[in-house]
Design a protein that fits this description.
By secondary structure, the protein is mainly α. The protein is built from four helices and no strands.
Length: 112
Amino acid sequence: MLTRPLWPVIEYVVNYNYIVEVLCENKDKPEMECDGKCYLSKQLAKQTESVENNPFQDIKKIEIPQFIIAEEIAKFNFYPKTNFTLKKVIGYKPNLKAFQFTSKIFHPPQLG
């Protein structure tokens, strides 16, 4: 609601030259020094009129009662009731030993 009268003022500032040269009703009377203020006052009047005719302005406030219900939260035990033990690790174990490759990698350099 507070920003609504601001839009005609912003429009006046941004389009100042156009409003003064084209839309001003008193451009023939330079002694009045209107500079488009007549246009601005009409726009502000329209804006306040539209605010007064706004059907949403008279919104009735309804109070909704709030209830606080306090209940004891049940305690949950998230641990399994039976003890599971892993008897065998399931996975892939390649039959690769270090000595299978060390003779190919670690050998003295051949001279000459």
